[in-house]
Design goal:
With 253 residues, this protein is of the alpha+beta class. Helices cover 38% and strands 19% of the residues. The strands form two sheets. Strands 1, 3, 4, 7, 8 and 9 form a six-stranded mixed β-sheet that branches. A three-stranded antiparallel β-sheet has the order 2-6-5, with no helix packed on it. Helix 2 runs antiparallel to helix 3 and helix 3 runs antiparallel to helix 5.
């Protein structure tokens, strides 16, 4: 069955790899269509359920080099396979040959691209009976691969420390607001906690976050209004939320 190493809606091109027309030479008959379909279904769901077992698809390439895709076929048999990818927003489909390295084991190399690039890929496999297996199974469920670089350890540690510090003061502000509603204390300590949330969140998001993003993906900011990155937009929304809360709290003092 096709499996994946730890590391490591577009129209399918009509181009296909050469397909052998005989068995693997052992004298055993090729698997039936039902067996091939069962193998494909099992491989697809195994990829989804085997988190942490080293059989996940390749979703990132850190540093220079070509992403390596490995396909294992069980039981070993002769196949034709090709890896295909698109680099959005382009819809042009590119192909990479899948080469046999040993019986039942095949490898394909995707191109080396600049950090920050994202491509979406899939693999098609065809056996001697012309039964086609596609991974992922659905045509609109492609695998996204990100090219990135390694960030400085100091930047990562500082970014995490400031963001965790911000969350710590968020909890203090929440607990303080509950005590305020119950009439157990005034708002001074809660407002001070909200101030620290903004200070730590600002430092962790912009000076440190921008440096981390640039080192990893080659761009400073991918959130609104320059992009639609989910992480950047969530952090920006969190900062604005606490800024509004602090302004409203200071107004009512």
């Amino acid at each position: 069955m096709p499996t994946w190493p730890r590391e490591a809606s577009s129209r399918i091109s009509s181009a296909a790899p050469p397909i052998p027309t005989s068995t693997d030479g052992s004298g055993a008959p090729a698997p039936s269509r039902r067996q091939a379909a069962n193998t494909a279904a099992w491989a697809y769901f195994r990829r989804r359920l085997a988190a942490g077992t080293g059989e996940q698809p390749v979703t990132e390439q850190v540093g220079p080099g070509q992403p390596q895709l490995i396909v294992r076929i069980e039981p070993a048999q002769r196949i034709g396979a090709v890896a295909r990818w698109v680099a959005p927003p382009s819809t042009k489909v590119e192909n990479a040959p899948v080469l046999q390295v040993e019986p039942g084991s095949y490898v394909a190399y995707l191109p080396e691209l600049a950090k920050g690039t994202r491509i979406r890929y899939w693999i098609t496999v065809r056996n001697v009976e012309q039964t086609v297996v596609r991974i992922p199974e659905k045509s609109n469920d492609l695998i996204t691969l990100k090219y990135k670089d390694a960030a400085s350890t100091w930047v990562i540690v500082a970014h995490i420390a400031f963001m965790f510090g911000a969350f710590f003061f968020m909890i203090l502000a929440l607990l303080g607001s509950i005590r305020m509603l119950r009439g157990l204390e005034g708002k001074r300590s809660t407002v001070n906690a909200a101030r620290w949330v903004l200070i730590l969140c600002f430092i962790g998001t912009w000076p440190l976050g921008l440096a981390l993003n640039y080192q990893t993906f080659g761009v400073l900011w991918q959130g609104f209004p320059f992009g639609s990155d989910v992480t950047d937009n969530k952090t920006q929304a969190m900062f604005l939320f606490w800024l509004v809360c602090l302004l409203l709290a200071c107004q009512g003092r």
